[in-house]
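Sequence, please.
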């Protein structure tokens, strides 16, 4: 099964192609990354440029993989995302055990949450169930009880931004296989089995925004978007040093640090100022420009958790940083100082193939999109396409043999 994940971000567009083997192993077989100029804070502002960037990224990934991609899983981000944890309830007839239909009724009631504005529901993620007051149940099917309750994390996206993203994908010649919020995708890519048993705060620091996610027992319990990212750090450097944005980005990537004490006190950087003049700036001074904005990003992320779940230090066991902004030297140390918790930089794991190509925090969302689609049931059309391979044809000749073979691929 070939799966393509498309991460359309503020600063870059990345396509990752994976192949899901019958034994469940996910091989990364293609990758393509190009600059993005058609988005602002994760939202499409120039349809033509976004479409062209998607085409170029896809072309690069297809060339590496040697396959033609027709469908993609697309990541959704930006301040237009809204999330809430909603409560659902279903009554169970006496003498009956809880069935899948009862679980679906409880979740459907939770999905009826009245979001304000023009929003489209993307995810309804069950957190935990309660049966007759007993809490902490992950799967209630088959249990006895008369009252089933569930907490569901709902994530919705603005209809306008979502429609523009879909249109850009379609105009690039692709069909939309599924959509997934970037925070969820990043968590699927970088969390370790040990962390899936903890409560983890994941921060995906992108160019225009920072995605905030709290995973509790491997399930997404809180999500938010901070409207600040790595580009805001670059703008601060450009403004205070009076240099072009491109030069500020180069200096940040090559010499930047989130903490002045990590910078070489003897190093003086030559910078290209506007008008072609050369200037100088000590490396610690550059870090002193960077630190306030990084502190602000971390503070706003913490604030979103404090207001929704309670004090960060009490609720969270560990912090994982990912996204391109996590590559800034010292960001993990600054987060450790600010949060008082263990912090690590997360990279995609649990995949094979081109692991060296995607072994970066900047590829977390794209790899996670592939993993997200791999976790979904096969659609009938996809199951049929896989079965059409000569080596996979049913061995039985009768109708019943073909039906059984088809159902085995669905379930």
């Amino acid at each position: 099964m070939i799966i393509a994940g498309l991460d359309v971000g503020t600063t870059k567009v990345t396509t990752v192609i994976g192949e899901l083997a019958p034994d469940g192993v996910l091989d990364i077989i293609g990758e393509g990354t190009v600059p993005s100029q058609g988005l602002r804070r994760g939202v499409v502002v120039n349809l033509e440029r976004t479409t062209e960037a998607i085409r170029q990224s896809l072309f690069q990934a297809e060339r590496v993989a040697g396959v033609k991609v027709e469908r993609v899983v697309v990541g959704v981000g930006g301040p237009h995302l809204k999330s809430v944890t909603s409560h659902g309830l279903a009554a169970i007839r006496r003498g009956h055990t809880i069935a899948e239909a009862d679980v679906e009724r409880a979740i459907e009631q939770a999905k009826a949450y009245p979001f304000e504005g023009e929003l489209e529901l993307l995810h309804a993620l069950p957190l935990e169930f309660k049966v007759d007051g007993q809490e902490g149940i992950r799967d209630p099917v088959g249990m006895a009880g008369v009252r089933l309750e569930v907490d569901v994390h709902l994530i919705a996206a603005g209809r306008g931004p979502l429609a523009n993203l879909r249109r850009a994908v379609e105009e690039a010649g692709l069909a939309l296989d599924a959509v997934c919020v970037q925070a969820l995708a990043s968590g699927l890519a970088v969390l370790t089995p040990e962390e899936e048993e903890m409560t983890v705060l994941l921060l995906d620091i992108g160019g225009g925004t920072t995605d905030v996610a709290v995973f509790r027992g491997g399930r997404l319990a809180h999500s938010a978007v901070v409207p600040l990212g790595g580009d805001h750090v670059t703008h601060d450097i450009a403004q205070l040093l009076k240099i072009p944005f491109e030069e500020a980005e180069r200096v940040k990537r090559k010499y930047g640090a989130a903490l002045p004490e990590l910078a070489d006190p003897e190093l003086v950087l030559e910078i290209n100022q506007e008008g072609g003049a050369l200037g100088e700036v000590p490396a610690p001074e550059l870090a002193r420009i960077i630190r306030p904005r990084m502190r602000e990003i971390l503070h706003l992320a913490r604030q979103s958790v404090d207001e929704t779940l309670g004090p960060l230090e009490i609720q969270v066991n560990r912090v994982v940083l990912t996204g391109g902004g996590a590559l800034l030297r010292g960001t993990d140390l600054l987060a450790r100082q600010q949060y008082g918790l263990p912090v690590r930089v997360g990279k995609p794991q649990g995949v094979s193939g081109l692991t060296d190509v995607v072994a970066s925090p900047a590829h977390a969302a794209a790899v996670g999109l592939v993993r997200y689609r791999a976790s979904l049931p096969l659609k009938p059309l996809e199951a049929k396409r896989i079965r059409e391979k000569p080596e996979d044809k049913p061995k039985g000749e009768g109708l019943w043999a073909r039906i059984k073979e088809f159902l085995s691929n669905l379930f």
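The chain is about 35% helix and 30% strand.
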